[in-house]
Design a protein that fits this description.
Blueprint (H helix, E strand, L loop, with lengths): L6 H23 L6 H4 L2 H34 L5 H10 L5 H12 L4 H7 L12 H24 L4 H9 L4 H29 L3 H6 L8 H10 L4 H25 L21 H29 L4 H5 L2 H37 L3 H11 L7 H13 L8 H32 L2 H4 L4 H29 L3 H6 L7 H10 L3 H28 L9
Helix pairs in contact: 1-12, 1-15, 1-16, 1-17, 3-7, 3-9, 3-13, 4-7, 5-7, 5-13, 7-9, 9-12, 11-12, 12-17, 13-23, 15-16, 15-18, 15-20, 15-22, 17-18, 18-20, 20-23, 22-23
Length: about 525
């Protein structure tokens, strides 16, 4: 590349301006910036404590259980393992309220477990609303994903080391201690940090399953202050407090963690199980069965519950179709914008990397992932306050929701495309200029052919993330504009469980349908350089 493409720089400037505008609005509505008013208030101290407490417990359970689960999956082969791992890789971007509905269908007061216990004249020993429900939902989403990440770390163990362990007659424990655990330990800080941040900034889960003031996080307190109490200054102050905490956590995680590549496939070497015994087999299969019994039933219940007598009533309701149309519009536009913005940023960053200007490349990619420090609800809050100062905020609802969702999906796009785009540039950096190939011709003949799979995967993840998001629409939603997640939340709030089940099934079908379409694109592109990446 003879020159640095400037399109990525302009996109980064627009993203920075977008976020800075939201932050400026927050600061304007909290001019004193007196965080002592947050720390001095007993309720907000409790909210902060609960945010850390539930995130810590969720992380401990998710990652703690993921260690034996990933180890068991690493050692055992069985029919359906590939499908199970693909499911594990998608739970993180599964529409949150679909997972919440599945958890309610199993563990709720009128769920499957309660029905079984009722036959024995017993009651559920816990309530799904409150801390227990939040933990169940967080583990449902994060245990499979953490297991998948740790499994990838184990898959990097060379085949020669497996053979050497077998040759030396190592026991299971010694092989785990000296060979497998060091690989997992390298990635644990990243996995712990990722899961903790996801749980700390969780909004839809806590909003649906929180048990009142005792189970409220900072993000939910922001939403309540603005939406219900219309206390703009408190909402802005809490949003700034949230950004400050997220920034500290993000910097701490960055120092401790090493990046982990995420893929749905497996290129693992053949695993040689040393001194296999009935006890070790039982241990492994118990953990595999446990994670299957925890993850699969809620999804199965979403399907079973969705096929109920009210399906015709819901499908004939205009509110359902308007919400579905809004969701598709938001998801397609947000995914397209995120994909275009991610490619623009990466085109510029890879040009800098080819010139060995790695610091600049890292900085522009960091701007693309700024939403990790400023959560979607916080950014939406700032934009709501900004627009409200000169116009009706709800008239810009679609634009803001699309842009915030695109910004939230952008880190996933950058993570998915960064390495493939860089590798293609390194491979053809001399050939393309020698043939006079640049611009659209280069993209059509080289980039598109090689990057169809990662591009489709990035679009699918962005689509799934946007179609299931509740944080942006929570503030801007109204009777005239609402997406399926907001419609589902309203149905759950009014205890219309049959109708909610149909909407949950619709969201699940849309998400899985999108990924199935991507699978077809994978097969169509199976001979390209990145078909198996």
């Amino acid at each position: 590349m003879n020159s640095i493409p400037k399109v990525g720089i302009w996109v980064a400037i627009l993203i920075a301006a977008f976020v800075i505008s939201a932050l400026a609005a927050l600061i304007f509505h909290a001019p004193s910036l007196d965080l002592n008013s947050v720390l001095g208030d007993a309720y907000y101290r409790h909210v902060t404590y609960f945010s850390f407490y539930q995130a810590s417990l969720s992380t401990l359970l998710s990652v703690g259980l993921a260690i034996p689960v990933s180890h068991a999956l690493f050692r055992r082969q069985f029919k359906g393992k590939r499908l199970l791992l693909k499911l594990f890789a998608t739970t993180l971007v599964l529409p949150v309220l679909v997972g919440v509905f599945g958890v309610l269908a199993i563990y709720g007061n009128s769920g499957l477990l309660a029905s079984v216990l009722a036959h024995f004249d017993e009651k559920l020993p816990f309530s799904v609303y409150g801390l227990t429900g939040i933990l169940l939902a967080h583990v449902f989403f994060n245990l499979p994903y953490a297991s998948r990440l740790l499994l990838q770390a184990l898959e990097t163990v060379p085949e020669e080391q497996h053979k050497l362990c077998a040759h030396l007659g190592m026991s299971h424990w010694h092989k785990f201690k000296w060979v497998e655990w060091p690989r997992m330990r390298q990635q644990l800080p990243h996995v712990i940090g990722l899961v903790f941040m996801l749980c700390f900034t969780s909004f839809a889960t806590v909003m649906a399953l929180g048990g009142g003031p005792k189970a409220t996080t900072i993000e939910l307190a922001i939403y309540q202050a603005i939406k219900f109490e219309f206390d703009l200054q408190t909402g802005a102050l809490l949003a700034i407090w949230q950004i400050l905490l997220c920034g500290i956590l993000s910097l701490s995680i960055q120092r401790l963690a090493k990046p982990v590549s995420v893929s749905t496939g497996s290129s693992a070497a053949k695993v040689i199980v040393v001194k296999d015994s009935m006890l070790s087999k039982l241990w492994d299969w118990c953990w595999i069965a446990l994670v299957c019994l925890f993850v699969l039933p809620p999804l199965v219940m979403v399907v079973i519950s969705g096929l109920n007598v009210d399906i015709g009533k819901v499908l004939s309701d205009s509110n359902f179709w308007l919400s579905l149309l809004s969701s598709l519009k938001v998801a397609i536009l947000a995914a397209a914008i995120a994909l275009a913005a991610g490619m623009a940023i990466l085109t510029t960053s890879r040009a800098w990397r080819l010139r060995q200007q790695h610091v600049r490349a890292d900085q522009i990619e960091l701007i693309g992932t700024i939403i990790l420090v400023t959560p979607g609800l916080v950014t939406s809050t700032g934009l709501f306050l900004l627009i409200r100062s000169f116009a009706d905020a709800f008239s810009y609802a679609l634009t803001v929701v699309v842009l915030v969702n695109a910004l939230m999906a952008l880190p996933y796009v950058i993570k998915t495309l960064s390495q493939p785009m860089l590798h293609i540039a390194q491979q053809y950096k001399l050939l393309c200029p020698s043939l006079g190939m640049k611009g659209w011709n280069r993209f059509k003949l080289v980039e598109w052919r090689a990057l169809r799979k990662p591009l489709a995967h990035a679009f699918a993840i962005s689509f799934m993330f946007s179609i299931g998001d509740l944080s942006a629409i929570a503030l801007f939603g109204s009777q005239d504009f609402r997406t399926l997640p907001l419609y589902l939340f309203q149905l759950l709030g009014s205890y219309q469980m049959n109708a909610a089940a149909v909407v949950s099934l619709t969201l699940l079908i849309l998400s899985l349908g999108c990924f199935s379409l991507v699978e077809l694109l994978f097969k169509a592109n199976s001979r390209t350089p990145y078909a198996d990446s």
